[in-house]
Amino acid sequence: MAIDTSGVTVFGRDWTKCFGAVGIGLGLTAIGYVMLMQDGTDLMDRRARQGGILILPFGALFGLYWLGRLLDPRRDLVRLTPEGIRDIRVYPQQLAWSDITNARTVGSYVILTITRAMARSLPLTLSQKLRKRLRASAGPGHLLLPSEGLKASQTALFEAIEAYRSTYPNNMPRA
């Protein structure tokens, strides 16, 4: 697939996945609530209440997280331009191609390696901080771009990033 790197490439939100995730969160919350309301005294009812204690908050938080993403008015999550990349889920401003030293895919993420100077001065979003804490392979000089909630796959995002990086080699750092 040829990617036009002369202008702006935008990766938008996949509304079906977002609505589905909110539905899953609501379903888990409902199941947790029903389990929590078991009022018997036998072992199965007590186990159901204990399971409800775990499932109810998880389902509610999961649903609220995706509902927040669904209600976010910004439609273009990832924006690639000749000057750089912007992913509002990671960092609200544009990151110049010269600040990115490497890009690779791991799992459902595109991992960008950034320069040390940029890594020190980069204020990360809360979700990016949590993602980096949960993934041992992501160090302080890495940004994790998740493919969740995007209309495009992680491979398409990676290929677009590599196409822009190779098209604008003057914007890349010197080795």
Secondary-structure map with pairings?
Layout: E1 9-12, H1 15-36, H2 43-71, E2 76-81, E3 84-87, E4 91-96, E5 100-106, E6 109-114, H3 116-121, H4 126-134, E7 142-146, H5 154-167
Antiparallel strand pairs: 1-2, 2-3, 3-4, 5-6, 6-7
Helix pairs in contact: 1-2
Short structural summary:
By secondary structure, this protein is of the alpha+beta class.
Report on the structure:
This protein is α+β, with helices and mostly antiparallel strands. It has helices spanning 15-36, 43-71, 116-121, 126-134, 154-167, and strands at residues 9-12, 76-81, 84-87, 91-96, 100-106, 109-114, 142-146. The protein has a 4-stranded antiparallel β-sheet with strand order 1-2-3-4, covered by helices on one side. The protein has a 3-stranded antiparallel β-sheet with strand order 5-6-7. A hairpin with a 2-residue loop joins β5 (100-106) and β6 (109-114). α1 (15-36) packs antiparallel against α2. The longest helix is centred in the first third of the chain and has 29 residues, at 43-71. It is elongated. The model has no long low-confidence stretch (mean pLDDT 83).
